[in-house]
Amino acid sequence: MKNRLKVLRAERDWSQAELAGKLDVSRQAVNAIETGKHDPSLTLAFRIARLFGSPIEDIFNDELD
Question: Which pTM was predicted?
Fold first, then answer.
């Protein structure tokens, strides 16, 4: 699954560790999501969307379109 997490994080000048702290996950989890090695749970996807003030579909793309 493609995502815009790295771009959104960079726009706010947050490190992976800072974002991880805001989401209550490890820095490694943030890295795995950003690089597409891991898809977030639905609960985490909602937390990410709320943090960035965007709908989930604006952050994550299932590549079907």
Answer: 0.90
